[in-house]
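Discrete fold record:
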Amino acid sequence: QDIAKERGLSSTFIASNGHIAKEALMQQRLNVNKSIKRFYNYYKTQKTNTNIKQIITLLNQITEVRARVDSLKDINFNRIFFSYYSQINTYILKEVGSIRNIVTNSQIVSLATSLVNLFNDIEYNGQERGFIAKIISQYVPFTDEDTKIWLNISSRTNTFNYQTIEDPVSKMRIGTLYNSRQDKKILEDVLDAKKDVVLAAQSGEYLIDPTLWFSLMTKKIQLMERSSQIIQTSLVSAIKNYKNQNIGQLISAGATWFISIIFLIMGLVLSKQFKNNISGLQGIFKKVEELAETKQDVDFSTSEGMTSAYKIIDQAVENIAKEKDNDK
């Protein structure tokens, strides 16, 4: 929101021909410079996509844009306000909006969607703050183009509705904010201020001071920013829980795999021992076959083979008994 605030103060400064918001604008530029420095430092070590590259390109032009604002000469307001400052925020919102494309669970998707909608509301309320401040600073009637722009901005300032949030904790906490006496008063004052602007739009005789308008809209935006902090806290918590659940499932799957490997090894060992036992048994059984006076291929690994083996053993025992009787 640092860029958005510089945009709004720049519009008031331009519209008042430098008489309003000069000190506040200079201070806000310092705040923006700190934010830009943090942004550059972060992306020195991070991969950049198309949105980030566009943001960097525009930020590299900020010194030139500020110089043009300060000169107060031959300024194309809409180009600076919408094509420069607002365009930076457009790319930021596109980047933030990409979090909705990450497949997780319904709770995270709901919170992410609410957060993106809230950020969009903050941006367009910021545009409305700066654009209207510019007009009422000049004390001129709205042109048809001004009215068209305002209606377009205004139609996009209320996409967020905390009642649709699925997370009960976030919904309750934000509801408490919006229903508090202080914040209700802010929203009522903003609505009254808009009515005053509409009533004076054709004459240009605005009753509300530009700085008061800017202050009221800033308070409304701060309310939304507090709401976004609540959602962000819940979102971080939900992502952490989701991550822990996945780790638990991974550990469980790993344990199952490990046990399966143990059983496989045990099976191989037993199979080897079984084969060795059969090999020894086959050696002994050759002598039994001689006593039984028979020769058969016996497969000890099957039930049919074991049945044949028992019959041969019975025959061997019977032959031994006959030999004993003959000796007598």
User: Anything to note?
Assistant: Residues 287 and 301 are 19 Å apart (CA to CA). The first helix runs from residue 2 to 15. The mean pLDDT is 83. DSSP finds eleven helices and no strands in the chain.
